[in-house]
Automatic annotation (TrEMBL):
Keywords: Membrane, Transmembrane, Transmembrane helix. PANTHER family: BYPASS OF STOP CODON PROTEIN 6, INNER MEMBRANE PROTEIN YBJJ. This is MFS family arabinose efflux permease. The lineage of its organism: Bacteria, Pseudomonadati, Pseudomonadota, Gammaproteobacteria, Lysobacterales. SUPFAM superfamilies: MFS general substrate transporter. It is a multi-pass membrane protein. It comes from Stenotrophomonas rhizophila. Residues 204-379 form the Major facilitator superfamily (MFS) profile domain. The chain crosses the membrane at residues 20-37, 49-70, 77-96, 102-120, 141-158, 164-183, 195-218, 238-259, 271-292, 298-315, 327-350, 356-377. PROSITE patterns: MFS (PS50850). InterPro entries: MFS, MFS_dom, MFS_trans_sf, MFS_Transporter.
Length: 379
């Protein structure tokens, strides 16, 4: 018979996977709604871009606050609160009648998702530490799985001509059900009463945060620019330009599902080094291949290489002693997600000044720098 502690550990591991699945599912559920929101609010492309910034702004502002609240009240309380925000705001995204109301709903939705992204990593670090073995890649895989399920389910239901409002209610119901099942097994650990609530990241925490920024920048480059690159530079038909991101996403998800065993054998530093070199090779192949299958292999290599970099960096953040986890994880999460938001814009500026080929080549070089720099980051 399984002992109670072992059953409890497994329950916490399953609940942590659900904690990663839920924000991935919620974020992907919003993506198919964008055309409906654009038409309903009569926004042009430029105005829509400005409104969409509300989502990112909400996420970045909420992350450090979430860390402070988790330190005082535990991960469970904060994840419940943030997911309630997501559940409540998701249907509003389908009915917001004006740009201002849509922006407000996106800000609340982004704050909920961003705060949950932060605290789920704090939860994962504690569960991984208790297990005594690498688990972070597997946890992050469930974020990707949640994204695939959310996008697929929402697209399928909308294709059946269900109203966006009803589809969002169904998505919120799924989130609420998984929340109810998982919450008893989320951690309630609190920081010592005399622990600081805020500190500027420094030392190894700042170094890990910068590496996360670059890693997320590379992922954001594939998300926002791969289809444009395939169409405009490699003359791929627009109907097939999304294949690059698809190859990347599949490779990343599969690799993360088996990534914990790889990290256990190689160690975190070597996994980051090898992963960054593979990802840089993939970017080079995707950039200079003249045949679409080779380019798709390149994007798959990027996904394979990047898969374990961010999870390994978060694990290193959990092992460092320079700052408490309640301060380190929000700082690193905020820096990392800033890379997702700022990265595509930086690539656009570089491409405007030179070319997309040069911009993609620069991303490959920065990935090599991640691998080399990680050797000196000791946590």
């Amino acid at each position: 018979m399984t002992s109670i502690p072992t059953r409890l550990a497994r329950a916490q591991q399953y609940a942590t996977r659900a904690a990663f699945f839920l924000p991935g599912f919620a974020t992907a559920a919003w993506a198919p709604l964008v055309p409906f929101a654009k038409r309903r609010t009569a926004l042009d492309e430029g105005s829509l871009g400005l409104v969409l910034l509300c989502l990112g702004a909400g996420s970045l502002l909420a992350m450090p606050i979430a860390g402070m609240l988790a330190a005082r009240h535990g991960c469970r309380a904060v994840m419940i609160a943030t997911l309630v925000m997501v559940i409540a705001s998701l249907p509003l995204l389908a009915i917001a009648p004006s740009p201002s109301t849509l922006g407000l709903a996106l800000f609340v939705f982004g704050a909920g998702v961003g705060a949950c992204d932060c605290v789920m990593n704090m939860q994962a670090i504690m569960v991984e530490r208790d297990s005594g073995r690498p688990m972070m890649s597997g946890f992050h895989a469930f974020y990707s799985i949640g994204g695939a399920v959310g996008a697929g389910a929402m697209t399928a239901l909308l294709a059946l001509h269900l109203s966006p409002w009803l589809v969002c209610l169904l998505a919120s119901a799924v989130i609420a059900a998984l929340l109810a099942i998982s919450l008893p097994h989320w951690r309630t650990d609190k920081a010592p009463s005399d622990a600081p609530l805020f500190a500027v990241p420094h030392g190894v925490v700042l170094a890990i945060g910068v590496l996360c920024f670059v890693a997320f920048l590379a992922e954001g480059a594939v998300l926002d620019w791969s289809a444009v690159f395939l169409h405009e530079v490699q003359q791929v038909d627009p109907s097939r330009a999304g294949l690059g991101y698809l190859a990347f996403a599949i490779a990343m998800t599969v690799t993360r599902l088996v990534g914990d065993g790889v990290v256990a054998r190689l160690g975190r530093h070597r996994s980051i080094l090898i992963g960054s070199l593979i990802a840089a090779t993939g970017f080079a192949l995707a950039t200079f291949a003249s045949w679409l299958p080779f380019a798709l292999c390149g994007y798959a290599l990027v996904g394979l290489g990047c898969a374990n970099i961010v999870p390994a960096l978060f694990s290193m953040a959990g092992n460092q002693k320079v700052m408490p986890e309640s301060l380190a994880i929000p700082a690193i999460t905020t820096l990392g997600y800033a890379g997702v938001l700022a990265g595509p814009a930086l690539i656009g500026f570089v491409a405007q000044a030179s070319s997309l080929v040069f911009a993609f080549s620069a991303v490959a070089v920065t990935l090599v720098c991640i691998g080399l720099a990680a050797r000196w980051v000791r946590a």
